[in-house]
Amino acid sequence: MRTVHPERYHLTLTAGGRLVQEGRWSSEATARYKFSGWVGQYSGLHDARIVLVDEETEEELASWP
């Protein structure tokens, strides 16, 4: 049986290998908008990595850098 994730788009921000912030959205468009915003906001953070994943398909939709 397939699990349905109502907030299936998961965005994480890590720095130095540690979780700094995360968010979940049901809308892919909203999650991608947030991804872009986080890149702009946290691009100066040392060792920052931002990843957007669709938890239903387990596909990585975007990552930075």
Q: How many distinct helices?
A: 1
Enumerate the spans where pLDDT stays under 50 for 5 or more consecutive residues: none
Our count of domains comes out at 1
Shape: globular
Helical proportion, percent range:
10-25%
| Biggest sheet overview | 4 strands, antiparallel
Distance between the termini: 35 Å
Order of helices and strands: EEHEE
> Average pLDDT across residues?
93
Radius of gyration: 12 Å
Count the strands?
Answer: 4
> What fraction strand?
35-45%
Question: Pairing-aware structural class of the strands and helices?
Answer: alpha+beta
Strand order of the largest sheet: 2-1-3-4
Brief rundown of the structure:
The protein contains 1 helix and 4 strands; from the N terminus they run ββαββ.
Explain how this protein is built:
By secondary structure, the protein is α+β, with helices and mostly antiparallel strands. It has one domain (9-64). Helix content is 23%, strand content 43%. It is built from 1 helix and 4 strands, in the order E-E-H-E-E. It has one helix spanning 28-42, and strands at residues 9-15, 18-25, 48-54, 59-64. It has a 4-stranded antiparallel beta sheet with strand order 2-1-3-4, with helices on one face. The longest helix is centred in the middle third of the chain and has 15 residues, at 28-42. The termini are far apart. The mean pLDDT is 93.
Write the layout of secondary structure elements.
Blueprint: E1 9-15, E2 18-25, H1 28-42, E3 48-54, E4 59-64
Antiparallel strand pairs: 1-2, 1-3, 3-4
